[in-house]
Structures are given as C-alpha cells and as structure tokens.
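Question: Hello, beginner here. Any chance you could explain the protein record under this note? Any guidance would be welcome.
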Amino acid sequence: MKSTDAKTPVAEKQPTKLDKHGDVRIDNYFWMRLSDEQKNAIDKDTQTEKVVNYLEEENTYYNEVTAYTKPFQEELFEEMKGRIKEDDSSVPYKDNGYFYITRYEIGNQYPIYSRKKENLEADEEVLFNVNEMAKDFDYYQLGGLNISSDNKLAVFATDTVSRRQYFLRIKNLETGEIYKDIIENTTGGSVWANDNKTIFYTKKNPETLRSEKVFRHVLGTPTSEDVEVFHENDDTFGTYVTKSKSDKYIIIGSYNTISTEAQYLDADNPTGAFTMLQPRERDLEYSVAHFGDYFYLLTNKDNAINFKLMKTPITNTTKENWVDVIPHRDDTLLEDFSIFKDYLVLEERTNGLNKIRIKRWDETKDYYLPFNEETYSVGVYANPDFDTDVIRYSYNSFTTPSSVIDFNMKDQSKEVKKEQEVLGGKFKKENYISRRVWVSARDGKKVAISLVYHKDTELNNNTPVLQYAYGSYGYTIPDSFSTTRLSLLDRGFVYALAHIRGSEYLGREWYEDGKMLNKKNTFNDFIDCSQYLIDNNYTSPEHLYAMGGSAGGLLMGAIVNMNPELYNGIIASVPFVDVISTMLDDSIPLTTGEYDEWGNPNDKEYYDYIKSYSPYDQVKAKDYPNILVTTGFHDSQVQYWEPAKWVAKLRELKTDNNLLLLETNMEAGHGGASGRFDALKETAKMYSFFLALEGKLDTK
C-alpha cells in the first residue's frame, strides 16, 4: 500500500495490575473496557469519551491510509453487486396450507416475507416488508418468524443494535395490527402452543446475555404477568424452547459444550408441567425429535463419539430405555436427521464430505444420494411437511452455484427448483478449478485444504493465496460457492480453505483434538498448511495472506505471534484475542458457557496453557505482517475492547513498518452490517486490503 502522512494513533497507557495464581500481568490498555450503560448513556462520562475518541482516531487513520483505495472499493462493490439478482426470491415452501416466500426488490437492502394460500397462483399476502421496518435504523435484523397453527398470528423478533438481544412482538395477519405486547431481551426464538394464544420464549441475562429463563405468555395479557416455567441455574448452561416437527410437544432444551438435557410438554396443554426426558450428565449429549410412540435421539451415549441415532418410548424416556436405530460408526459422523412418515433421512460426513442417506422405515430401501465433485457442500432443508415423499436439499461447491433441489424418495427422481444466478455475463463454471490436497501436520495427522482458482492462474511463488479457516466449536466451514470470491479469483488469487482441527471435518475426534488443552493443534495445523503451500510452490511468504473471524480471529492472532514471517497480510474480523482476561471474567457475555471449549483459567493448568497462546498476552517486540482488524462497538460475542487493546499493544511493540489498521463499526455488532448491500461494501473493503498489498487495484 502507498505511504501516507496520516498520524498513527497512540493509545494512552494506564497500567492495570492483574494477579492470578501468583502470576502478575500488567495490562496497559484495560481502561478501554466500557459497560453497556457507559456505551449507551446519553451523557458520556470521561472514560467513555476517551474510549470513543480513541476508536474514532483509529477509524480516521484507517480512512486516511486507505483513502486511495476508495474508488477501487466502489468499483469492487459494483462488480459484486452486479453478480447478484437484485429482484431475487426464495423457492416457495409449503407449511400448513400456505406457500411461504422470501423475496427482494431491486434497490432494496432487506427482504420481504410473504405467503400465498394453497397454491402459487393465489394473491400474495405480504407478512413483513423489512425495508419499511428498517428505514429509521442504522442496523436492523428481523428474525424468529413463527406462525400460529391457525395461520392468523405471527410472532417476530427485532434487533436494532446488533447485540442479539431481541424484542418479541405479535402481529395479527388478518388485520395487520401489531399488538402492544412487547417482550424485551429475548433470544428471538419462540413457539406457539396449540391453543393459538400461548407462546413460550427464552430471556437472556441482561449482563452476561446467557439464555437462562423460559417464560409463558398469553396473548392480550401484560408481559409483567408472564409465567417463568424454567430457570437454568447452572451458569455454564444455556437454554432454549422449541416445538417438535409433529406439533405434539413443546421442548425445553438445556445445553453446554459437552452436555444436554431436554424436558417436554404436550402442546395441547400449555399450562401443564414439563416432564424430564433424561437428566443431564457430563459428556452425555442428545437432541430430540418425535415420531409416533417414540422420541428419536441423536446422541453420543455409550461413547459414540461420532454420534448415533437411538429411540425411546414416550412412556419411558430415560437412557436405560434407549435402543439403537443407526449404530455408531468410527469413520462416519452423524450430523443430523429428519423424520418423515415413511422415511428417515440422515445427514452424515465421511472423510470430510457431506452425504445424504435415505432409509425407509419398513427397511425396503436404504441408499445414498450421489454427488460427484471432489469437494462440495450439501444440506437438507427443514422440510416442514411430514407426510411427503419429497425432501428438499441444497447443493453447491467452490465452482457450482447453489441449487435448491426437490428429491422424490420413492421414485428417486429430482427436480432442480432453482439454481443461483450469477449475473454479469462473465461467470462460467468451467473457468475455475477446485480440488483438495492433504497436508501432513507436524504430528503426522493429515489436514485437508480445499482450493479454488481460475484456470488461467499459474501456481508459483508469485501467486497470491488467501488462506481461510475457523477451527473452533466443532463448526465445519463448508466448501461453498461465493459470488463475491470471484472478484479475487478473477484477479489471480487462489482461495485455500484449511480444514484444521477444532472443526468436525474428519469427525468428532477432529474437534476434540483442537480444543481445551489441545487448542494449539488448531494453530499448528493452519501454520503447517501455510508452510505446505509455500514449500509446494503454490505461493511464497510475500504473497500469502490469511483471514479469520471471531474464534478464527483468535487463530489469526496466534499465527502472527507464532510465525509472522509466513504472511504478507492478515485480516482479523471481530477477533477473540484477549482470551485469558475474558475467560477469567464471568460477567462478560458467554464466558461461563465457554469453559468446556477453552478451559477454565481459574484452574492454573488451564490458565498457564491459555496464556501461552492468548494473542494479546503473547505480543512481542518483533516484525509483524500487514494487519487489518475489524470490530463492532456493540458486539456481544467478542467485546470491541479485545481487538482495540490488541491493536494498541501491537502498535507499542512491533518493530516493522507494515500496516496496522483498526476499523470499528460504531453502529454494528458481531455480524457486521445488516443490509445485503452494506455487507457487500464490507467485503469490498476487506478484499481491497489484500488486492492493494498485491498491487492489483485495477480492473480485471
């Protein structure tokens, strides 16, 4: 990037002594932390002004340093926008007599939710026009849409701050009236009882944001009279409420990283008492579906590390009554299942690849859907219709745009209901190459990298490569199509998705081997993949870039401390980088529920291990690559002060002249911008950072 006369921000140092287990840390930037009350107060106190001023200084610096890229960012945004069908709509799905549709109109940022009764030729009934609802807000998220069984009422959730604390409202779909009932500080989810007037919902702890209480609300009564039906007292657990696909049961679930529990209630009897299905036990996980006289359970019972499917009679639900339906397999992770009247549909993962298995209850058929690409992504939709032979699933890959497909399980025919359109006239699938390579990590484990690049891109030490990964919570990043990524591929970049430990790409053990006291395997895998790409002449350190967000931002912070010399630039989005301090503070949102992911540093063994990789604690006086850090002032997942402190400490200690930029979205939280075009602008900003470092700020 070009040199600039912009004044580099210098954060004030106010040493704060932090003492744990006899280990004293001095945090010079602890003062950057603000409470929600301080952030949201109309009259700002001195500390709030100081923090906001610092963040604004960093934003000004970012804008000045990147000013020359602004025309290119706009060009890139228009290019990305030009590939999407602005007046797009979802494939209609039928539920309880209505076809439901989500559609966009040209020029609008937000969706319109509508439905048609009985057939698609019926008049459209607009349920929610989010563009109208969002017009007075910088950020707006509508979610949690839930229609009553008589089709007359809808519960909906809104978040206007991006802190994932939703308001619940109820709309009369016949009159258009939005009732005065307003329920604050919820997760956004809700379920209707079968009486069409009672809803169950989950409230969050106002400080920690842990989902901790389930309430019952009756339409037309004051929310102050809502009845608390469950309080999750264990602060390492969260709770939620859902309804079985059969509409027979309301289910309250409790969960943490390694244990779950469920209670159930007849949905025809909303004021009744919930019945415990199976009391929680450490290391016992199960999720529940209902069919006929049985509950079906996706569970790791009996050391089934890759999970199996079991069932138990509704009359005897505790674990001694559970029997296998689909046994455990060492080489296959059972990810999910869907129940239909005549069929059981299983979503599995073997050798990193998704599979869909169709099995008749009468056992006359049992087969897998065929997928032929070397790497791809496939997933089954919710499929609300129970009595059907047709399942709907989605399919895409790095080179194949997303398709929505209806598959007839009886005659095995399929109908492509929709294939994602890539506008602009330039995209051709055959112009791109996608494949997998396997890397030997330092401990001998084989790690997959999924690659995609333009067929005209030569692979050598001058080739720019963007390496991406996440690597936490067992979440597996899919090998999926992206219209925005084409802007990098068409400019000669290779995109490399590293399936490192901490995900479940190679089964549950792959996750277990990348958490707690094995967490460094995640970072080592990523670095070993980078070294492989360099050693095998895909790229060189002068042209290798890395990117990750949230826990993937922790990954970025770790790798640049461990091997900064391998990368020319990184982007860390909403990065979790002050791990030790956050995990020691149980007042911070989500901390207590994370103990089984990272470890509890109140235990010295975990304290020492976490500190040994925590990016903020491991910043040293040495050269770092070019770095762009992004965050949101209202982020509830990773508080803004973590990246802000990290950048301040990097500025203090780093010995290079490379770029270090911090951009804080003062209106958004963890998920970034809410509008579809604003989200594209954020992507254009990030891509321009890499492209500027490559000297590619020009048209293709």
About this structure: The longest strand covers residues 183-192. Residues 46-65 form the longest helix (20 residues).
